Here is the input.
Amino acid sequence: MTRPLVLELLALPKAVPEARRAVREHLNRPCPEIQLCVSELLTNVITHVGEGTPVTLRLTHGHDGCARVEVTDPDAHTWLIARRPDAGEEMGRGLLLITAVARRWGVDRHPRGKTVWCEVGGAAADPETLEVPRAPRRPHSDICVARSDLFTTTNGEGTP
Here is the structure.
């Protein structure tokens, strides 16, 4: 099992490719699904919480070969709600991409903010794992998404 990766950084556009590169170097192999999740979770913080927000990115590995990507930010009130963007809208599909590549994902609230996480299984997650069957999605935290809906964040009161 690979050791955990923990990065303390500011949610800035330039941090996104740097974090993807750090994840790939940490795993010492191509990991496009994990890098996609890192990009989307960091971009959500930049877009919906604010550029320059301090975040913690964690990459951990389970015994089943599953990689868990977590991004923690200090804003527990920016929350996820279902939305259906028009075909011409440029935003609103990042969490749909995560839903497509992750075994499951969700949000944990805590006194210091929230952690948005996703779990990606398979050989890309751990070099010693050849194949991990897709597990059924099941609740794990405050929110665990098991549908292919499109989501966005709100101010915690139900309004974007």
The two ends are 41 Å apart (CA to CA). The chain has one domain: 5-154.
